[in-house]
Every structure is written in structure tokens, then in C-alpha cells.
Write a structure and sequence with these properties.
Largest sheet: 2 strands, antiparallel
Order of helices and strands: HHHHHHHHHHHHEEEHHHHHHHHE
Shape: globular
Mean pLDDT: 80
Distance between the termini: 22 Å
Length: 465
Amino acid sequence: MADLAPQRQPEEPERRGEPPGTAGGPLTTRAALERTGAWRGVARWRWQIFAVTWVAYAGFYFARQAFSVAKLGILEDPAAGAQLTERVLGVVDAVYLLAYAVGQFVWGMWADRFGPRVVVAGGMAGAIVASVAMGASAALPVFGVAMVLQGLAQSAGWAPLCKNMSSFFPVRERGRVLGVWSTNYAFGGLVAPPFLGWWAYAVFDAWQAAFFAGAATLAVVLVLFLLFQRDSPRHAGLTVPEPRREAAPETGGGTARTRTGVYRATLRDPMVRTLGAAYFLLKPARYAILLWGPVIVSRRLPEIDKVGATLVPVAFGIAGVVAPVVIGWISDTVCGSRRVPPCVVALGLLTLVMALFTPLTAAGSVPVMIAVLGAVGLTVYAADAMISCVAAVDFGTEDGAGTAAGVVNGCGSLGAVLGGLLPGFLSGTALFYGFAAAAFVAGALLLPHWNRRPRAADPQPSQGS
């Protein structure tokens, strides 16, 4: 790259292949693009991809959260509630999470092979079909099959979209850019439930409307995605200089550039395995608050009503929108693109907050509960965004960024199953001490990699003719 070129006597600009009137000396890629007038087109595509992929993953939540919103109406519906009891709905949740975990291990590899566009669009279509099926029938077999499809479809979003973003943004910018981009899932989790609840209970007074409204919203997002998304700079008409490739490790049957070779090489990568283990330990805490937040608040604050118990956990989600932005900026600017230090700090703070959760909330104070849930959200979402997105694609090989993100998120999704089940079996004190211990172990696993940096940065794209 020009930034690293040795100093030499300046030559005539025309002989160096630069525009006339350019001063001598090395140029950064961005400066060269600006001087040739190509940077504006490159920047437009990068931010277009940022916007459409952000909207795409937030859109997935409108189909995902429909079931949570519909539960209130299902349990009060004599016909549906007869077979879809609370325990049955809990099992359906577990089935969904298991299907989601399986999909995470698959779709990242498929995105590396077929491109994010095909995988994400197929996932959206599957989620729409599953939502319509659940709105059309309350039969348990239909719900079971539809939730398996929904889990597989929803898992087609994250890893492929992370790969899509990594194709347009170099390593030195990913901490900040993907930090902001990772607000999509916290935003979707905040906005989708009240939006779907309004359609279901204020407009139509029917729980089925939650599924139909979610499907319709995601259908609009799918159209926008197909219109404005491109898989890579080359697909957008941008010319990419030949990158300096990371050497691919050898596998038994060939090189890691084969599809099975990429997957095997990814699984053998110590850093990917470490990230997967850390994410498995982290994600139960996040999903316990997401799925059981109102119940936990009601247990700790018995005097609060149901509406209040539903609103208090919003602090967790609001902090989740801020956290990825903060940790991404810290990673790039303070830590020099090192991803592990901010993760370890966030996990250390999460350990402390989880260990103190029970004594801090023992007084029954609503403001204290809001503050504690906000602190949990800030720390858990910070580590979550850095591990599941930025670090996962940074430490994967160029050809295996989607596979690496899929493996890491698949491990986390297995942990999410525990987050949905454990609050029903453990008391508050034991539960939060368990989450504190898990966060501590996750931080300890990452600590030996404190000074490790991502692989070489991707080259900046330039606009094709």
C-alpha cells in the first residue's frame, strides 16, 4: 500500500500513473481516490450497503417478535389456549432457538459460497411464510413446524450480513462502523413489539394480526433489500485492487479455499473457537433478560403492575442501542483496532453488575432497577456486538468471514437456549450468580489474546470505468 512505500525521489506525476498536478511523495488510498474523483461513488455505495443491511436485520425482528406479542392473546383465547398452554409455548420457544442455532452454523458458510444476497433474501422469504402460517392456524403441529422454519430463516440474517458489511469496510474502520451497524438488533427488539402489539390489540383486537403485520413489514424490507443491496464492491461496479490474502491453512483433502476446507479451517482456528466459547457463555444473560425481563422485574418489585413490569426492561434495550457504538469507537480509536481489550473490560463490568444484581434490587426501588438493567444492557450488548460481529469477521479468513461469523454466532445461539430455560428453573440469586460466573470465565478465555490484532486490512475499492 502507498502508506507503507519506502521514500524515494519524486517522479513526474504522469510517470507514476497519478493525475497531473499531484505533489510528490506517497499517497494514501483515500487521498488518491479523492484526487481522481472516484471517492464520492465509493462512499455512496458503502453507506448504501450500510443502510440497506441495517434495515434488513432490524426488519427480521418484526417477524421474530410476533410470537412474543401474540402470546398474550393466545393464552386468553379459549380455542387456541386449550392446546397452546404456557408450558407448550415455552417448548415452542426452545424449538425455535435450537433451529436458530443450527442455522447459524450453516448459513455463514452458504454466504461464503453463494453470496449474502441469496441467503438473506431466502431467509426473509422463509420468515414471511412461517409468520403467515402461524397467523392462519393455531394448531400445535402448524406452530411447531412454522417455528422450526422461523428459526432457520431468522438465522440466515446475521452472519451473511456481517460478511456483506466486511466486504465494503476495511479492518481499520470496522470497529466504529460495525459498532454503529450492530445497533440494528437492539433497535429491532425495541420497536417491533409495540408496533406489532398496536396492530394486534389496538387496531384489530386479534393476536393473529401480530403475525400478519410482521410478515407484511418484512415483505417491504425484502423488496428494499433486493433493490439496493449488492454482495461486494465488484457487484456494485467498483474495481478492487488485488488484496494481500491471508495464507489459508492446509486441510486433509486440499486447501481451505474449498468450501469444506474453509469450514474445517475455521473450526480449527484457535481464535474462532475462543470467540465461540466466550459467546456461548455470554448469550444466556442477554436472552434471559429479553425473554424473562418482565417476570424478573415482577419478582424483584412485587408492587409494580404488569404494564410497569413490561416497561422497566426497556432500559435494557435502550442501553443496547448505545453500547455497540461506544465499544466500536473505543476499539478503533483507543485500542488501535484491537477487539479483545474492550470485550474483556465489558465482561469484567458485567460480572460485577450480575454479582450485585440481587443486593442492589433488594430494596424494591424502581429507579435502581432501571439503572441496574441499563448497566446490564450496556455491558452485555457491548461485548455481544464486538464478539458476534466485529471480531468474528476480523479473525476469519477473507474467504471465510461469513463462516467464522456463523460458527461464533451458532455457539452463542446454543447458549441462548439456556437463557430461555434457566430462569424457569433457578431462583433469582442463583441465576444471576451463574451469569456472573459465566461472564468471568468468558473474559478469562479472551484475556490471553489481549494484544492480538485482526488480519491485514482490506484494500479500499476504487470506482470502475
